[in-house]
Structures are given as C-alpha cells and as structure tokens.
Amino acid sequence: MATPNRLSRESSPYLLQHANNPVDWYPWGAEALERARREDKPILLSVGYAACHWCHVMEHESFEDEAIAALMNERFVCIKVDREERPDLDQIYQLVVQLMRRSGGWPLTVFLTPDQRPFFGGTYFPPHEKFGMPGFPQILTALSDAYATQRGEVEEQAQEITAAIGRVQRSPAGTPDVGPDALRRAARALGERFDDTNGGFGSRPKFPNTMALDVLLRVGVRDDDGVAKGRVRLALDRMRAGGIWDHLRGGFARYSTDERWLVPHFEKMLYDNALLLRLHVDAWRVFGAPEYAATARAIVGYLFAEMRDASGGFFASQDADSEGHEGTFFVWTPGDLEAAVSAGLPREAARLHFGITPAGNFEKSGATVLSDVVPVERVAAELGVDVATATAALAEATRAMLAHREKRERPTRDDKVLASWNGLLLGALADAGRALAEPAWVAAAERGFDAIAEKLVRNGRVGRYFKDGVAASDRPGFLDDQAYLGNAAIDLFEATGEPRYAAHARAICAAMVEHHWDRGEGGFWFSPDDGDTLITRTKDAYDQAIPSAAAMAALLCLRVGTTSDESQFAAGEKQLTLIAGAAMETAMGMSQTLLVLDRLVNGSTEVVLVGPIDSPATRALADVAFHAYLPNRSVIHVDPSRPESLAAAPIAAAGKTGEPGVTVAYVCRGRACSAPVRDVAALEALLADGRASLR
User: Fold this and answer.
1) pLDDT in the model for residue 692
2) Is pLDDT above 60 for 207?
3) Pick from 569, 484, 24, 587: nearest CA to 274
4) Are residues 60 and 35 in the same domain?
C-alpha cells in the first residue's frame, strides 16, 4: 500500500479518498502555493467531490497509476480540492473550461501558474487517447513543456483567461423590465424548454430543475393556468415513476442520463432531496393528491434512515459506486429477485411492476434499474387478482427486496455536515412537518439546526461544515452557508414560534450583509471580506443544482426586513435590482431570483398569530396557514406573555393585540392588515381572498 500523502491529515471524505494515491497531493493552501512559487512549477488543480462517479474513474485510471503519478509529481505541484469544501475555488476555475467552450463538470482539471492564474483546463481525461480525447500523460507532458519553453504564450493565455473570468463574475447585466407579470413571462420562456412528453426540461442528461418547476407551479396557481400546473404534475409523476427515484428506500438520485428519467447517475445528494421535498409538499398543497405527500414522506424516511448524523445534522451525499462499479447496489437481475422474494404472487408482482427481465435496461449488463413499468392495476389484471391483493403483494416484495439489498456492499457516504445544504433541508423539513402533521420532522429540524448553530455559528457567522462532531475550520463559510441557514432559521421560527430562531436569522443576516456586501457596486460577494485572497471574488447569481446564493441572500434580507429589522430590506432589494434584468432574460438559469423578485414586486402575506404559542387554538390557526399554498407567506407568532416573543418580529407584531388566553390571527399584505379573526373558517376565507387578488 502506498505511503499516505498529505491528504491523510484532512477531514474531507473526498480528500481522504485520495490519501493513498502515489500522487504527491497537497490540499489548497499556503504550503502548496509557496512551493509552486519557489520552484517555479505550474500547478495541477484537481477538483471533485466524494459521490462523483467520473472522479472515481479518473482516480483509478490515472491517480493510482505509478507512472502517471510520477509524471505529475515531477512536473507539477498537485493540489486536490473538494468542491463542497471550497465552492469559491470551484466557481472560479469551472469558468476556465466554459471559457474554452467545453462543458464544465467534475472531475475538474485545471493548470495554473504559481500565482493561481489558469492557462488550460478540462474535466475528465483518460489515461490513454480515447473518446477523441488525448491521454492524460500527453496533456501533462505538453503543458509542462509549454510552461518551460513557451512561457510568454502561457503567460498571455493565463492573463486573458483571468481577465475573462473577472468580467464574467461581475453582476450579470440585463434590461430591468420587471412588473407584476414578471413570473408569468418567465413561465412562458420556461415552457418553451419543457419536455411535454417525458416531463422536465431539455433532453439528456435531465436534472430535476426544481426552481424552474417552482416558477411554473406558482404561475399555474396564480393564473389558474392548467398547462403550467399540468407540466409540474407531469415532471413530478415521471420522476417518481422513473429510475431516478429509489423505489425500495426512497430518495432521488442526482440526475437521469436519459430523457425518460430511467437510468440515473446513482449518487444521491442532500440538496436534491431537500429541494424536492419542499416541491412535493407544495404540489400536495395545490393538487391535494396523496401521492405527493407519500413521496415527501418517503424522502424523509430515506434521509432519516441513511443520511442523519448522530448530532442531528445530515450528511452531504451517498455515492453512486460500490464494489468498484456504478449502480451495483441499486440494480436487479432476475436471479437477484429470486434470491430476495419467495416464489409466488409477490415475486411475480415485482417482476411485472419493476420490469425486471433477463435483458435488463442498464448498460447491457443484464441488470435492471427499477422503475414503474407496469401499473399495479395492470399487474392485478395479468395475475388474475384484485388491485388490493396486487398492491399488498407488491408491498411485501418491496420489503423483501430492500432487506436483501441491505446485505450488499453499500455505497460510501460523504459524512460532512454542510451548513448550506443542511439549511435547505432543515427549512424544508420544518415546513413539511407542519404541512403534513408530522411533528417529529419539526423536532428533527430543530435538533439539526441546534447542532449546526452550536458547532458552526459564531457571532452570526456560519462556518462551512463539521464532521464527526468537529468543525473542519474556525473560518466562516460562504454566502450560501449564511443565506441557506438564515432562511432555515426563519422557517423554524414560523414552524415552532420559538423566538430564538428569529434571533438567529437576524444575527446571520446582519453578519452576512456586513461581511459579504459589495460596498462599491452593490450585491453580495460569495466569499467573505476576510476570506482567502484568490484571483477574483465571485458573485453567485445563477442557479446550479442548488439555488443562487445571491438570490437566497436577498430572500433572507426581505424576510428579516419585513418582520424584525427593516434596515436589512434595502440590501435584498438592491441585490434583486442589480440582477433582475438578467433574470428576465435567463429564466432557466435564474429561476430562484425570479421567485424572490416576485416576493419583492407582489409583496408577501403575513399571518400574525397573537396568543399562547402552545395552545390548541393557535395550532389550529397556524395549520390553516401551513396547509394553504402561499409561496410568499410568513407565519409570525406573538405570545404577549413572553417578552422575547414580542421582540422576535417587532415590525410584524406592531399594533397587534389579543385577549388573555385567546388566539387571534391577522392577515397582512404590505402595510394593510385585516381585522383579527379567531376561527379557522374565517382565516381560510381571508387567505383564499388573498390568493384570488394576486391573479
């Protein structure tokens, strides 16, 4: 076994995966950069993440190869970066590949001068020439030779790319043309990219694109647009029926390699399941269909069973690979089915329903990615039983298949507890728990938030992650950490009425504005003002698989600014003004900005509950607000008997009075509030009137 390299001292699971490579890897930091300067060697920067399949492939093919590793060590200072640990570096250097008119992605392979300026980049390179790509050793030799003998050209290329990165990273420009119908126009643009046959956007590979589906759902409800609503249902139904969904345990994989949602890349990411949890709960609110609530419950079941840290936080991801191959843990052959399920009706029901055949559907392997191939009604007809019997048989088979699968070698998990991704999940979990009457979910969200607050939040500044109960660094994290966790704090305040969560949100928002705000042009920097000095400072205006950090920061400012600290509202408004024009022209890439802009333009709806927080009357009125589909909603609890409750949302609470022991609800839009109401029916009517007025 190779002698462990420097990565053995790191906490990142991705870096630790490479700790026994024969490559002389460095983590990003002063030691590596100083060596590159001292020895005048170019830097080979390799960026990936623990659940990345092609990252594993390149490691096995190249980084574990003694000859290739020797070439890397001789000619370069080699730095390995976990993109989830250092998204600031990933944002900068992904642009190199895109500026060279190639597709970005991971593994990311970029070559830098000793002062961090990039002069060449790509993603996966094979060990030998294939797929029309040069072999990695050929790339290494050509670039190191160029650095040694054609320095002027390398310097010129590095300067041009660095300047281009700086230009791209300014706030995206566009003509501000925003009005109350902005979301409607965005939905039309999104509709042009929608796949009306298979659901979702585009062809292959196909990602969930939850933020874009959120836009369609909001417009569908507001305008009573049956086409928009139908598209959301089609996308959710096809994803749930396809192989991107884990039909045994629950949870969604990262994306589908085909347009039909059938064969995924099997890694499961915390952020996808957080975003899809919230979207399915909203779909349940809108359509009332029990299958959306069932899918939400199955997502949470998966997360609780497989992704929860002992602290209460949630792990980052689950790998696609096991036993050295992608998907091995998840796919099924007829022999696997026979070993798992006894002969008889359950086995036959599973064979038909999941489409398990000798030919299979996965990479000509004879294995099958499970999907809903034959509806249970047809299964019943083919087996000559009623639907209830077929349903019970299929449930029995599914339990047996899951138990059998648990005996397989499991994919590894990236057991970092990232503040940002946990923020997405904990907020969704709190909201879903109130909507679906699952108090254990709200309690789990509280526990997770409290663990992150204890380990990572200092003076309102949120750190990046902890692992095994220990913070990875004492440095503050990035804009997404602040924005996502701050919004989760507000979600928890709304779900529980506990003032401490409102205090957390206020403190995080204030620190975020202090340390991330661009005091020159305005808008939020992704990195804090006391972060590492890199070749540029980025602004994260575009959605990726996760929402734009800038848009989520603006949302936090608007939410805090309308309920508790009016001084923060201006930063959110300014951020949105800067990028509104670009968002109107780039609906697919800036859907989250459009959703937050809708809150700014059309206003929010505040449901202010005045009365004892724990009383049945308060809970009944709160349930009305949580059951309704109100995208720009705030639920504010004011308990006159608790001074800290009055201080939690002073703007929203101002002028709201009640009677001792009685709970009343006010509905406010802008600066206008309804008269107080006490009963559920009256509050339902007020909220229904509000939805109608927005059409």
Assistant:
1) 39
2) yes
3) 484
4) yes
Say what the pLDDT of residue 693 is.
Answer: 42
- Residue bearing tokens 């250092």: 86
pLDDT of res. 308: 97
Considering the domain boundaries, does residue 421 fall inside one? no
The rounded distance, in Å, linking the Cα atoms of 570 and 349 is 59
Q: 193 and 300 share a domain? A: yes
Secondary structure letter of residue 566 according to DSSP: G
* Closest CA relative to residue 491, chosen from 252, 277, 215, 214: 277
In b/e form, how buried is each residue of 224-238, taking b as 16+ CB within 10 angstroms? Answer: ebeebbebbbbbbbb
CB 42 within 8 Å of CB 96: no
Are 278 and 404 part of one and the same domain?
A: yes
Residue 689: φ, ψ to 5°: -60, -35
Q: DSSP characters for 386-447? A: -HHHHHHHHHHHHHHHHHHHTTSPPPPEE--EEHHHHHHHHHHHHHHHHHTT-HHHHHHHHH
Is residue 489 domain-resident? no
CATH number where 164 lies: 3.40.30.10
Helix (H) or strand (E) holding 609, with range, is strand 605-610
Q: Is residue 315 part of a domain?
A: yes
pLDDT in the model for residue 595:
97
Please give the pLDDT value at position 489: 98
Q: What is the pLDDT of residue 180?
A: 83
State whether 214 and 303 are in the same domain.
yes
Q: Do residues 98 and 39 share a domain? A: yes
User: Which positions ≥6 away from 495 have C-beta within 8 Å?
Assistant: 430, 431, 433, 434, 442, 445, 626, 635
In a shared domain, residues 238 and 386: yes
pLDDT value at 147 more than 80: yes
Final residue belonging to a domain, choices 414, 440, 467: 414
Establish if 453 belongs to a structural domain.
no
- The domain boundary, picked from 120, 136, 168, lies at 168
CA distance 371 to 638: 48
Number of domain units in the chain = 3
Mean model confidence pLDDT for the chain = 94
Q: Domain range spanning residue 624?
A: 603-695
Nearest 5°: phi and psi at 546?
-115, 160
